[in-house]
Structures are given as structure tokens and as C-alpha cells.
Amino acid sequence: MSSHIVIVDLEISNLASVLQALRQIGAPPHAFATAQNIEFADAILLPGVGAFGDGMGSLRQKQLIDPIKRAAGRGTPIFGICLGMQLLAEHSEEFGSHEGLGLIKGEVVRLRPSEPEFRVPNIGWCDVEAVRPSVFFPNSAAGCYYHVHSYHLVPKDRAVAVGIIDYAGSQHVVALDTGNLFGVQFHPEKSQDDGLRVLANFFAALPHMQRPS
To answer: Which of 98, 152, 172, 187 is an active site residue?
Structure first.
């Protein structure tokens, strides 16, 4: 039986690239999220680019905040990509102070490199280190992925981290896997074979994840 996947369209997302990547890996059929169909989803995909406040504003306008929170509470797997991962956090300092979904305890803060050769935003390919086996990196081997970000999620519990990069001499979390919550800061849909493998690993693991009751 195929999974029922819903994709949240923030209307500030690079959905065309995401949908193309999903076709390439043969992902299950999907629908775009509504306040109604999220209740029946087997998984929620939350991609996004742009500012945190705009992302939360879009979720609010579409009346998706409470349905996503209820789905998370039921155990529905939620996979955030780039801004989508950041929106899982409690709070962001991007262009003011913004409340997030609050599913991951932590803050989204600006990259603050102390060395001039590290630019903000961080744009380009970064080697990701897998810190433990996870849905994304089941063999504890990560790869090289395309990043575009000026802010990053700092979780209160570093145990949720499964992938990190070294940026300006500091380790930054770029992949997380905890319970039914998953996220990557990089763009798997733009990261060639390594990125497609991350997406394929997630969907391959989906049948073995806890289903909503």
C-alpha cells in the first residue's frame, strides 16, 4: 500500500526542484497540504527558502500551524528542508523575533564567522560529517551537499544532530533526526547523487516508522 505524502507549499519554496528530485527517486504519490488532508498524512514534507517570518506567515495564512503540530503529536513523520528545518524550531532571530512551530527545542540564529574568508550567506558545497547512524545516513556516511543559508538552527539538545559541517572553525548542525522529526539545512534536491540518496533513504525508511493512530 502506497504512502500518503503531503507537501507544504509555502509559496516561497523551490518546489519545482523538489518535485523533480522526488520523481527521480520514485517517491510515493503526494498531495499539497491542506488543514484537512494533513490529518491523514503518512508523512509531511516541509521545504522552503527565504525568511523565517515569511515562512511562518505562510503557514499561518494557510491555517497549517495547528494541524502540523497535531500531526507531530500523533507521530506523523515530518521532514523539513532548509527553511523548513528551521521552522521546526522554537524561535528565530532573523529580521526580528519570530515564534516557530516549537517542535524542536532550539533557536535559529545568524551565522557569525570570526574569520573574513567565511562569507554570509554560506553558499556552496560543504562536506557533511555524519555523527551517528540515522534515517538520512544509515551507514554513518554522509557526503557533500549544496547549502544556501545565513541562519542556522542551534538545538538545545545536540543529541538530535545527525549531520554537521565545519564553518569558520565551529561545528554547525545541518541534519537532525529525532523521533518523528527530521530536517536538513542543505538542499538535497540540488545536491546531485548524495542529495537524492538522502531523499531516497527517508522514503525507504517511511514504512518502518510509527504511523499515526
So the answer is: 187
Q: Which of these is catalytic: 11, 82, 90, 147?
A: 82
Write down the catalytic residue from 39, 149, 189, 208: 189
The alpha carbons of the chain give a radius of gyration, in whole angstroms, of 16
Taken in order of first residue, the domains within the chain and their CATH numbers are 5-208 (3.40.50.880)
Supply the DSSP string of 67-110, one letter for each residue.
Answer: HHHHHHHHT--EEEEEHHHHTTEEEE-TTS-EE---SEEEEEEE
Please state, in angstroms and rounded to a whole number, the distance separating the CA atoms of residues 94 and 53. 7
Grid cell in block for residue 75: 507521530
189 has catalytic annotation: yes
**Residues 75-113 pLDDT 10s:** 999 999 999 999 999 999 999 999 999 999 999 999 988
Sheet arrangement for strand 151-155: 98-99, 89-92, 104-110, 151-155
- Low-confidence winner among 16-25, 95-104, 113-122 (lowest mean pLDDT): 113-122
Is the bond leading into 155 cis (omega within 30 degrees of zero)? no
Is residue 30 annotated as part of the catalytic site, yes or no?
no
CA atoms within 13 A on the CB side of 67: 19
Residues 163-202: pLDDT tens digits? Answer: 999 988 889 999 999 999 999 999 999 999 999 999 999 9
SS3 assignment, position 167: strand
Check residue 179 and give left, alpha or beta (phi > 0: left; psi -120 to 50: alpha): left
